[in-house]
Write a structure and sequence with these properties.
By secondary structure, this protein is mainly alpha-helical. It has four helices and no strands. Helix 2 runs antiparallel to helix 4. The relative contact order is 0.15. The N terminus is likely disordered.
């Protein structure tokens, strides 16, 4: 029987699935690296430039409140940075898997051996690039 497409024109499987390739995962990782740098840079200017001591003479309630708020903000930035690092690592891992899968498909096509079957995608999100 074979596969059929609901589209009138011939379309590749990659277009139908819309799965990211290794190049796309590498782009995602690079973009997240940029975002990570931006997130880390957010807190530093606030902590360095804001000094509440002129408002309460130093050591007062305002300074304690500001320091507590900055500590919470720093903790949040660290948490976001940690999550971004996990996402970067995952994007790079997926890129490597897609690259290996692409190489296996290229080898299959190059060998042109009818006794072999095309390699199955290693994951639902993997595509040939």
């Amino acid at each position: 029987m074979g596969e059929c497409s609901p589209f009138a024109t011939s379309t590749t499987l990659r277009t139908l699935l819309g799965m990211p390739t290794a190049d796309r995962y590498r782009w995602i990782a690079a973009r997240l690296e940029t975002d990570l740098g931006s997130v880390i840079a957010l807190l530093r200017p606030i902590a360095v430039t804001f000094d509440p001591s002129p408002f309460d003479g130093g050591g007062g309630q305002l300074e304690r409140t500001v320091n507590t708020t900055l500590a919470v903000a720093e903790s949040n930035v660290v948490e976001v940075a940690t999550e971004l690092r996990h996402q970067i690592d995952e994007a790079n891992r997926r890129a490597e898997i897609c690259e290996r899968y692409s190489a296996a498909v290229r080898d299959f096509r190059r060998l042109n051996d009818p006794s072999k079957t095309i390699p199955r995608p290693p994951a639902s999100w993997a595509d040939v690039g």
